[in-house]
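Researcher: We're teaching a course module on how sequence relates to structure. For the next exercise, students receive a sequence and then see the predicted structure as tokens, so they can try to spot secondary structure elements on their own. Here is the exercise chain.
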Amino acid sequence: MTSYDYDFFVIGAGSGGVRASRIAASFGARVAVAESYRPGGTCVIRGCVPKKLLVYAAHFHEDFEDARGYGWTVPAAEFSWPKLIEAKDREIARLEGIYENLLVKAGVTLIRGRARVADAHTVEVDGVRHTAKHILVATGGWPAKTEIPGAELGITSNEAFELKHLPRRVLMIGGGYIAVEFAGIFRGLGAEVTLSYRGSEILRGFDDDVRRHLRAEIEARGVRVLLRNEVVSIERHGAGLRARTSDVDITIDCDCVMFATGRMPNTAGLGLAEAGVALDENGAVIVDAFGQSSVPSIHAVGDVTHRVQLTPVAIREGQALANTLFNNRPTTVAYGNIPSAVFSQPPIGTVGDTEEQAIQKYGRVEIYQASFRPMKHTLSGRAEKTYMKLIVEPASQKVIGAHMVGPDAPEIIQGIGIAVVAGLTKQQFDDTVGIHPTAAEEFVTMREKVLRGF
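Model: And here is the predicted structure for the students to work with:
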């Protein structure tokens, strides 16, 4: 029998890699993890966790204004970007320590350094070779920049968390969730923000009503949104930058250009293709339902694959793989009806089909909608509106999609997601007593329907 240094060698100590490592170790596997940066991965170190901390910070601007409507006398507030980043850094360091301790307590060997797959059973870390029965690639993704003249003058989400000063004028290139989230962050903290997107509407892939509603809300907050607009070059202009666009009449002067134009699988330099691992056109590892690549001993989970790019999904995939390999329990992940959120301002919560997807599947669907002013703003005077939508399949009467834009949308959709995954019907929603007064009760009180589709 072939002897290996480890049963399981994981490349990347992010959410998926750490979960797979810990679960595998709990089943008695000898496990090592190689990490070239900091344990915690994108989500913890330079992704969803620090981003949400900055979202919280950006909300205080409105909170101070809203407090006046409730009788509070609020003196002029002052904001310090360096103090925010310092506080963020302390929290991220704390979480990094927790991730490292989780590995140590599980009996996992943490190896610091850049790893490369040498062959089907060998990983090389800074010149030292380690053999393993199974190898897991969990290296996540990396922000992409549009290849235009002057792109090197712009930043990505990676650098946005490390800026020494808050830019006075920000140009956001892109229209996806990262673009709208950071547009809200910078605007809420006081910057002038322009968002340039080449598409006809922001947030491609989301429900069209949700997309339109959010754009109207972020524009009302002062974000300038340019649709069907493409930045073609960036150059230095005085003390700042100047961006030229596909519309010859529009140039944008700013102090910071941020690319939010997607993320690419982080596979460059890993030696995967040389080891025989099949990659797609974007460099993602192609895997089967069990996370196995074209090389049976090499596996992949998380954003480095061609599947769903969400942290909770990577965690599920890591645990499923550990069960498959070391617990004699082949396990797959269900990718349907995954709840998700966009921490824009206001935020989005969504689960299940969009209206467009539902019509493609069923031809005709029932739509229930509500749009209203949140109770909080009846005294604050803010004009913001919440939008909620249910999509129902007529024959079974199952709720197949639920979408919300408004305060607490992600928190509310988590609960609604359980109902959608369980296949509950509209009647069962209606039979549920609402909690009053809340926004969430609208999901069980919507009665007026419209039929859409063909």
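Model: If you want an answer key for the exercise: The two ends are 62 Å apart (CA to CA). The chain has three domains: 6-143+264-326, 151-261, 340-449.
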